[in-house]
Design goal:
The complex is a heterodimer of chains A (75) and B (706). Chain A is built from two helices and five strands. Chain A has 75 residues and is of the alpha+beta class. About 2% of the residues of chain B have low confidence. Classes of the chains: A alpha+beta (75), B alpha/beta (706). β4 of chain A pairs antiparallel with β10 of chain B, so a sheet runs across the interface.
Chain lengths: 75, 706
């Protein structure tokens, strides 16, 4: 599953990031990295954008980036 | 003894670099403009006393743009990396947000790898303590091999220590930074180090760093060793080492492998030095975000803020505008008294003073709007705005942040173009700049009011005006989509954006932003607009036609009837304008406008509108022979226009005004913000073609309907 399949308030672990190298490095420099736990804070209308929290950092992503990040939901 | 130290200040965005500079120096901020760089770098000078005796040091701090990494993903990252690699400086101060240690350390590891002298500043320590985060700075210093100093720009904690440390590190011979990699990588590094040692290789940089850079495929380092005799043996050795690493990491992307290494190192370092007192409650930012980016109330709250900002900008800004206007009118009249009514007096009053006045008139608007935008940015709200609106704007190839420049465009295009700076991506910014003109600015309103008043009933006027504005905005969005598909091709720029913590704005910082923006507007726009204003004044006043003037003077002096006298002087004005360079251009370009149902008079009116849209109405006044001193509420002009212009031509005229190039001031600012005159050329061609085509369609459809 990827971030888009989560609901607001869900916590999940990042399993992999499948995208081109430069975007991957960009995501990683913002702390979005394999093995990291994220929490979904808010979706914009139609799940076009998402705000996720990593530790205390809040990061906004678009649909495209959401789809490239595979996660595993924490129960 | 040389006591000049140059310090490069680097850090991720929102770590309080600028406030730190303010805290170190009590001197005034001096803004340096570096050529070819759109991102500002700040230089300041201050003196340091160390404890042995008081020695004066002049320290130049170069404030590099905030960068998340040295991966060259954004303009800021490119500028920062290129400065750190190529420019002369003595040491790097890496400013780190103490409340966000792990991610910041990721950037620190990249800096440490450069082999320069580094000081790590753990900034915003007061906030960290409040959040229950305790960092062992000594331990971190042991791990990284460089001094780590806790500071707080607001409480001035650690500022003196930092000054001492700058001097100490400056006096050191070389970098003491160290990064530890995972065992497989360390093994290969050691192999290479041993090889260099065995061969007695002479290297300017330490063996370890050389080994790391070779393993990272660093091009410059390769060039360095390429001509050395040992390269014959070395290159196969490196290849083998990399193969080992590939196998171990199950990946062939060295960049990603080392990013993983940095991540592991930063995480490890953080784990060792940080201790959190009790689980703290959800922080303030997340609580505020629950409200401000909420699906349902987020957008209404934002619209309210925007409404308030525009009320302030255009209502409050209008007050000094009137004073400035009357002040410059007064100056112009005085100038005519001093220099006479002749050519020179007219040049000074109508050309220069009026030109400068037009520039300064926008200043109150710009100041208020930029104060508002600076507040939105420094508090961290701007990122939320982008988040809220990105879904909608992205459909048209725009970015969530495009909203603010676009809405500003309804007020005035000049600040709107400047507001587009908030878009960091070049393509997003260009696309937004190109369609700002579609948002009808305040200066076009008089033209609309005049024509709508002349051709539509009073009860319809409001609806028609609304229609004009809405269809302009829609056209803009459609154009954005078309430009995005056909002109600004290429994949979508990703939207990966930090939502910074909400912070109270620092007065000094906001003042600095607003001040420097106002200054650059006055300086750059002022010179060009002044020049162009003089040019247009010249085109409408020359060549002097003494014969026409003289013959009318005679007629006027012979006439006793006041009304006919007035009529004659209007005719004089009309004929002078018709025979000026501007009038000649109007006649010359008439064939272009004939298919739109317009004559040379309307063509001239549109052409003078390139200078300023307000001029269109007064030009029409002159051309339709009731004198230049009119406004849109003048019933005489309304009647004249109704009598002389066919309805379909009027519709075509309105459509043309909606779309074509905004005023001269805006065009100059556009060229500057877009980054070159060629873009102004593109914009001119693009808007003129669109305006002509749609005007043509509107003309013929109207002809069919009526």
């Amino acid at each position: 599953m990827n971030i888009k399949d989560l609901n607001i308030g869900d916590r999940a672990t990042i399993i992999s990031i499948d995208t081109d190298s430069s975007l991957k490095l960009r995501l990683q420099s913002l702390g979005i990295h394999r093995g990291v736990t994220i929490e979904v804070r808010e979706f914009a209308l139609g799940k076009q954008n998402v705000e996720i929290a990593i530790d205390d950092n809040l990061i906004g992503l678009r649909k495209y980036e959401m789809n490239s990040i595979k996660v595993e939901k924490e129960l | 003894m040389n006591n000049n130290i140059t310090v490069a200040l680097a850090g991720q965005p929102n770590v309080g670099k600028s406030s730190l500079i303010n805290a170190i120096s009590n001197a005034k901020l001096k803004v340096g403009n570096f050529s070819g760089v759109t991102v500002d770098k700040t230089e300041i000078n201050f003196k340091i006393c160390d404890d042995v005796g008081c020695v004066d040091y002049d320290v130049t701090v170069i404030d590099l743009p905030g960068a998340y990494s040295l991966n060259e993903y954004t303009i800021e990252e490119k500028v920062t990396k290129s400065f750190l690699l190529n420019d002369d400086y003595d040491l790097i101060i890496n400013v780190v947000d103490s409340t966000n240690l792990q991610r910041n350390l990721l950037f620190t590891t990249q800096l440490l790898e450069m082999g320069k002298k580094v000081i790590v500043v753990l900034n915003m320590n007061d906030e960290a303590v409040k959040e229950g985060i305790i960092i062992d700075a000594q331990q971190l210093s042991n791990i990284l091999g460089v001094p780590c100093i806790k500071t707080s720009a607001s409480t001035k904690e650690g500022i003196e220590d930092l000054k001492k440390s700058i001097v100490e590190v400056y006096n050191k011979k070389e970098s003491t930074a160290k990064i530890v990699y995972s065992d497989p990588v360390e093994e290969e590094i050691n192999k290479l180090k041993r090889f260099f040692k065995d061969r007695g290789f002479k290297s300017k940089i330490p063996y370890r760093q050389l080994a790391v850079q070779l393993l990272q495929d660093d091009k410059d380092t390769y060039k360095l060793i390429h001509d050395e005799p040992i390269s014959v043996e070395l290159i196969p050795l490196i290849k083998e080492a990399k193969e080992h690493i590939y196998i171990h990491f199950d990946s062939k992307n060295l960049k990603e492998i080392f990013e993983d290494e940095h991540f592991a190192f930063a995480k490890g370092a953080k784990m060792e030095v940080i201790s959190t007192k009790n689980m703290r409650a959800k922080n303030m930012t997340q609580k505020i975000d629950n409200l401000l980016i909420n699906k349902f109330v987020g957008i209404p709250i934002f619209l309210f803020f925007m409404w308030a900002l525009f009320q302030l900008t255009f209502e409050l800004g209008a007050v000094p505008m009137d004073y400035i206007d009357s002040f410059f009118t007064y100056l112009g009249d005085e100038a005519k008294l001093i220099f006479g009514d002749g050519g020179f007096g007219s040049l000074v009053a109508d050309g220069m003073i009026a030109g400068v006045g037009a520039v300064i008139m926008f200043l109150p608007n710009i100041l208020i709007l930029f104060l508002g935008i600076a507040l939105l940015e420094t508090t961290g709200y701007m990122s939320r705005v982008a988040f809220l609106l990105d879904g909608f704007f992205h459909k048209f190839g725009l970015h969530g942040k495009s909203f603010i420049p676009l809405v500003t465009g309804f007020g005035c295009s000049v600040p709107a173009y400047m507001a587009a700076r908030t878009l960091k991506n070049h393509k997003d910014r260009l696309l937004t700049l190109f369609i700002i003109g579609f948002m009808s600015c305040g200066a076009r309103l008089p033209i609309y009011v005049l024509f709508v008043g002349a051709f539509f009933g009073e009860d319809e006027a409001g609806n028609i005006l609304f229609l004009i504005y809405i269809s302009g905005a829609l056209l803009g969005l459609i154009s954005a989509k078309i430009l995005n598909i056909f002109v600004f091709k290429g994949g979508d720029e990703p939207f990966v954006m930090e939502m910074p913590k909400y912070r109270l704005p620092s007065f000094k910082l906001i003042w600095h932003t607003v001040y420097s923006q106002a200054k650059s507007y006055l300086k750059k726009a002022g010179t060009f607009i002044l020049g162009a204003a003089i040019l247009i004044w010249f085109a409408s006043n020359y060549p002097k036609n003494i014969d026409i003037s003289n013959s009318y003077e005679v007629k006027i002096s012979q006439e006793s009837n006041e009304t006919i006298k007035k009529q004659l002087s209007y005719n004089l004005e009309l004929e002078l304008l018709e025979n000026s360079y501007l009038g000649k251009i109007g006649h010359f370009s008439e064939p272009i406008f004939t298919p739109l149902g317009m004559d040379w008079k309307m063509a001239v009116a549109l052409e003078t509108g390139l200078a300023a849209k307000e001029v269109v109405v007064s030009t029409l006044g002159v051309l339709y022979a009731i004198g230049g001193d009119v406004d849109e509420e003048n019933s005489g002009l309304v009647a004249q226009i109704k009598a002389n212009i066919p309805f379909a031509s009027a519709v075509a005229f309105i459509v043309f005004v909606m779309i074509y190039l905004p005023c001269l001031a805006a065009s100059m600012v556009f060229a500057k913000e877009a980054g070159g005159w060629k873009y102004l050329g593109y914009l001119f061609v693009f808007t003129s073609l669109t305006a002509w085509t749609l005007s043509f369609i509107a003309y013929h459809i109207t002809l069919l309907i009526i």
